[in-house]
Design a protein that fits this description.
Strands 1, 2, 3, 4, 5, 6, 7, 8 and 9 form a 9-stranded mixed beta sheet that branches. By secondary structure, this protein is an alpha/beta fold. It contains 5 helices and 9 strands; from the N terminus they run αββββααβαββαββ. The protein has a domain of 125 residues.
Length: 224
């Protein structure tokens, strides 16, 4: 659902762009027996005629410094189902090579798109969350710009009565916080958080004081 929302936003921006023209979107690549993949976007710069293959990703990642592996492996989904490294690997090994697959050739010919001269890029629309006690200035600058909140274990959670809280469905995560109408008190939000954690779902919680809104995740995985 979030991916489709991100696609609608991206396509609207390209449609209004004075610099780029959309050649094709969500191109299904078929073998004789099955669908083998999809190319997100083929674009062309209007002035230079340079062509681009763009893969669009909309991701929410939490930084887990205790996780084994590379820096990219430490950025994981709220429910530990994927990681930034997983996305990078998929791009390199599947999504980018698909442009040069033999089953893609005819489609590209019809679009007058030359894969050998095209530039391949990934637009990663990332919302990043740090542990509550982490320092943002220790991250690379590009990552710092994407940090939008923090995350906590349940035993670190502090809820205060003078704040208002909200827990919205995942499909609403891209909406501005001023669109939220169902705010509740500390006791009510704690019950909602506990229910989500019991189902091994890490909820994103909104915390409001006046016009200031913060976002954070409460995770269900063990604190070790």
């Amino acid at each position: 659902m979030l991916g489709r929302q991100a696609e609608a936003i991206f396509e609207s921006i390209i449609a209004d762009s004075k610099s780029y023209r959309l050649l094709a979107a969500n191109i299904q690549i078929q073998s004789p027996s099955k669908t083998i993949g999809e190319l997100d976007y083929l674009l062309q710069e209007k002035n230079t005629k340079i062509q681009f293959h763009v893969e669009l990703c909309c991701k929410f990642y939490l930084f887990d410094p205790k996780r084994f592996g590379s820096f990219e492996q430490k950025w994981i989904g709220p429910n530990k189902k994927d990681s930034l490294q997983d996305k990078i690997t998929k791009l390199r090994e599947k999504q980018f090579p698909l442009l040069f697959d033999k089953h893609t050739e005819k489609i590209l010919e019809n679009l007058e798109f030359n894969p050998l001269k095209a530039i391949q890029e990934c637009y990663l629309a990332a919302s990043l969350y740090l542990p509550i006690d982490a320092a943002i200035n220790e991250l690379p600058r590009a990552y710092q710009k994407c940090v939008v909140g923090f995350w906590v274990y349940y035993n670190q959670l502090v809820l205060e009565d003078h704040y208002s809280y909200a827990l919205v469905e995942k499909k609403q995560w891209l909406l501005p916080s001023n669109s939220i109408t169902n705010w509740c008190n500390a006791s009510e939000i704690r019950n909602k958080i506990l229910k989500a954690l019991e189902n091994k779902k890490a909820p994103q919680v909104y915390k409001k004081s006046g016009a200031v809104v913060e976002k954070f995740f409460v995770v269900w995985w063990d604190q070790k």
